[in-house]
Automatic annotation (TrEMBL):
Keywords: Heme, Iron, Metal-binding, Monooxygenase, Oxidoreductase
PANTHER family referenced in this protein's UniProt entry, alphabetically: P450, PUTATIVE (EUROFUNG)-RELATED, P450, PUTATIVE (EUROFUNG)-RELATED-RELATED
Annotated positions binding heme: C443
Gene Ontology MF, one: heme binding
Domain of life, per lineage: Eukaryota
InterPro entries, alphabetized: Cyt_P450, Cyt_P450_CS, Cyt_P450_E_grp-I, Cyt_P450_sf, Cytochrome_P450_fung
Stored PROSITE patterns: CYTOCHROME_P450
Pathway: Secondary metabolite biosynthesis
Cofactor(s), names only, from the UniProt record: heme
Name of this chain's protein: Cytochrome P450
Similarity section: Belongs to the cytochrome P450 family.
Pfam families per record: p450 (PF00067)
C-alpha cells in the first residue's frame, strides 16, 4: 500500500470520527435504549451483516426487551419488538414517526424518491396515499372482484399446465393483477414486456438499490456524489445512472399505455383511468405526477409480497397434509364440486380464513417492516430515541412471540379457532394488525390482498393436491428452504408436487377458461 493510500485512509478515518462524534451526542438526560455493544467509531456494523436481519434482531428482543438500539457510524437504528411499543410509537406518535430516510443513492441518484414507500412524510406522500385510498379503500374492493376471479382462474390453468414453474406463474399473477387493476393492461404471456420490466425493476430495487436497508457510503458522505467518474470507487454513480433510467421507464411506460388507450377510447377501467376522469382528483396539486408515481408504487409493492405469501402457503401445505385435507373437506361441504369458491362463500369457510391468517403470521412477508424515520428527539418509557433514527417495527419478533402465539414456529391454523379466546385476545392475535405495517404508512394494498389472496388460496385448496416432490426412485424430496432477500422473506424456489385433486377439479379449472 502506498503512502497516498495510507494518507487517504487516515483522513477518511478522521472524517468518520468527527462525523460520528457530531451525530452521536445525545441532547437528553435519558439514556439510549439497550442493545448489543457497539465498537468505537463503527458502532454495530458487525451485528448487521446477515441477510436475515430479523433473526438476530429477535434475539436482541429477547435479551434487551421491547425497544433495542444500535448504531452504525452514529446513525441510530431502533427495533420495536412488541405490539405495544410498535403502536405507541409508529401509530400513536405517528406525527413524528412517519417520515422516511432521505437517501442520496436510492432517492436522488436512482430517482426513487417519489415512490410512495420512499417519500418523506409531507404533502407529496399524503396526496399519493389519498389517491391510493380512493382506489383501494374497503368500499372500492368489490368492484375488482371480477378482475380478481379472472386472474385467479388464469393462474390455476397455468399452474396445472406447468406446476414446476409456480414461481413464474405467481409473479405473473401478482404482476398481471396489479397491471390490470392499476393500468387496465392485460399481460399476454409470462414474458410480457411490462411484466419483465416490473420484475427487473423490483429485483433491482430490493436486491441492488435498497439492499441492506438502502444505506450506501454516499448517504453517509453526500459529497461522494460529486466525485469524478474516473476516480476509483465511483462505480456506484455509473450503476445509479443505469438503474435510474430503468426505473423511469418502469414509471412512464405503463402510464403512457393508459393515456394512449384512453385517447383512442379503447380501454379497460382502472385506477389510473378512473382518476384521470375524476375532476375533483384532477384539481389536486401535481395530480398527474402523483398519480404516475402512486400507480408505480403499487406495482412495485405487490409482486414480492404476493410471492412470499404463495410460497409459504405451498410450503405449509406440503409440510401439513392434514391441514390441506381439512380445508378441502370444509370447501367441499360448503361449495360442493360443481363450481369454484366465490367471495360470497367466505363467511362459511372459517378454517380457510384461519389458514390465511396463519400463512401471513408464519410466513410474514416483510419481517422488519419498512424503516420509518423519527423526525424529532423523543423519550419513550424513560429512553431517549434520537431524532433521525431509523425505526423498524420488528414484525418477525411480534408474530413469533410465544406469549401471543404459543408454539410460534409451528404452522397451526387452529390457534385462531380456539373457542376460549376473548375478543381482546383475538384482536391481539390477528396478524393483519402487524404484517401490513403501522400508523400513517400502513400498507395501502391491504384491502386488495385480503380479497385477492383469499380467493387464490380458496381456489388452490378446492382444486389441487400439494405435496412434497419425489425423485425418479420415488423417494420424497424435502424442500430446500433458503432466504436471500434482505427485505421480503421470499424462499428461493423449491421442489414441490402440484396436481389437480380429481378429474372433476381438472374440468372445473379448464371450464373456468371459457367463463
Ligand atoms: C401480502 C401482501 C402485502 C403485505 C404483507 C404488505 C406489507 C406492507 C408493509 C409491511 C409495508 C410497510 C408499511 C409501513 O411502513 O409501516 C407496506 C407498504 C406499502 N405497500 Fe404493501 N403489502 C402487501 C401488498 C401490497 C399490495 C398488493 C400493494 C398495492 C396494490 C401494496 C402497496 C404498498 C405501498 C404503496 C406501500 C408504501 C406505503 C407508504 O410508505 O406510505 N402492498 N406493505
Amino acid at each position: 500500500m502506498g503512502a497516498t493510500t495510507y494518507a487517504g485512509l487516515a483522513s477518511l478515518l478522521v472524517a468518520l470520527y468527527i462525523w460520528y462524534r457530531k451525530t452521536s451526542t445525545t441532547p437528553s438526560s435519558a439514556s439510549l435504549p439497550p442493545g448489543p455493544k457497539p465498537v468505537p467509531l463503527l458502532g454495530n456494523i458487525r451485528d448487521l451483516t446477515t441477510k436475515e436481519l430479523w433473526l438476530p434482531a429477535s434475539q436482541w428482543a429477547k435479551q434487551f426487551g421491547d425497544v433495542t438500539y444500535l448504531h452504525v457510524l452514529g446513525q441510530g437504528l431502533v427495533f420495536l419488538n412488541s405490539p405495544e411499543a410498535a403502536f405507541d410509537l409508529l401509530d400513536k406518535r405517528g406525527s413524528i414517526y412517519s417520515d422516511k430516510p432521505q437517501l442520496v443513492m436510492v432517492g436522488d441518484l436512482c430517482g426513487c424518491k417519489h415512490m410512495v414507500a420512499f417519500t418523506g412524510y409531507g404533502d407529496e406522500s399524503k396526496r399519493q396515499r389519498r389517491l391510493m385510498h380512493k382506489a383501494f379503500g374497503l368500499g372500492a374492493i368489490p368492484s375488482y372482484h371480477p378482475l380478481i376471479s379472472t386472474q385467479t382462474n388464469t393462474f390455476l390453468r397455468r399452474l396445472i399446465t406447468s406446476p414446476t414453474e409456480y414461481v413464474a406463474h405467481t409473479r405473473r399473477y401478482a404482476g398481471g393483477l396489479t397491471l390490470n387493476v392499476v393500468y387496465g393492461y392485460e399481460a399476454k404471456s409470462n414474458n410480457d414486456p411490462f411484466l419483465s420490466l416490473a420484475e427487473e425493476c423490483v429485483n433491482l430495487l430490493s436486491n441492488k438499490i435498497a439492499s441492506g436497508g438502502g444505506i450506501w457510503p454516499v448517504d453517509v458522505f453526500p459529497a461522494l456524489q460529486h466525485m469524478p467518474d474516473w476516480m476509483p470507487g465511483s462505480g456506484f454513480k455509473k450503476n445509479a445512472r443505469v438503474w435510474k433510467a430503468k426505473m423511469e421507464e418502469f414509471v412512464d411506460a405503463p402510464y403512457e399505455f393508459v393515456k394512449e388507450s384512453m385517447k383512442s377510447n379503447n380501454y379497460q377501467p382502472s385506477f389510473c383511468s378512473t382518476l384521470l376522469e375524476d375532476e375533483t382528483a384532477q384539481a389536486t396539486e401535481d395530480f398527474e405526477f402523483n398519480l404516475k408515481w402512486a400507480a408505480n408504487s403499487m406495482y412495485s409493492a405487490s409482486a414480492d409480497t404476493t410471492m412470499t405469501t404463495v410460497s409459504h402457503f405451498l410450503l405449509a401445505m406440503m409440510q401439513h397434509p392434514e391441514v390441506l385435507l381439512k380445508a378441502q373437506k370444509e370447501i367441499d361441504a360448503v361449495v360442493g364440486d360443481e363450481r369454484l369458491p366465490e367471495f360470497a362463500d367466505r363467511e362459511r369457510l372459517p378454517y380457510l380464513d384461519a389458514i390465511l391468517s396463519e400463512t401471513w403470521r408464519w410466513g410474514v412477508p416483510v419481517p422488519l417492516n419498512l424503516p420509518h424515520r423519527l423526525m424529532e428527539d423523543d423519550v419513550y418509557r424513560g429512553m431517549h430515541i434520537p431524532k433521525g433514527s431509523l425505526v423498524f417495527g420488528n414484525i418477525w419478533a411480534i408474530v413469533r412471540d410465544e406469549r401471543i402465539y404459543p408454539n410460534a414456529d409451528a404452522f397451526d391454523p387452529e390457534r385462531f379457532l380456539r373457542s376460549d379466546l376473548d375478543e381482546e385476545t383475538k384482536r391481539k392475535m390477528n396478524p393483519r394488525n402487524y404484517v401490513f405495517g403501522f400508523g400513517r404508512r400502513l400498507c395501502p394494498g391491504n384491502n386488495l390482498v385480503e380479497s385477492s389472496i383469499w380467493l387464490l388460496l380458496a381456489c388452490m385448496i378446492a382444486t389441487l393436491d400439494i405435496s412434497k416432490a419425489r425423485d425418479e426412485t420415488g423417494k420424497v424430496v424435502e424442500p430446500e428452504v433458503k432466504f436471500e432477500n434482505p427485505i421480503f422473506r421470499i424462499p428461493n424456489p423449491f421442489k414441490c408436487d402440484i396436481r389437480p385433486r380429481s378429474e372433476r377439479a381438472l374440468r372445473l379449472i379448464r371450464e373456468s377458461e371459457i367463463l
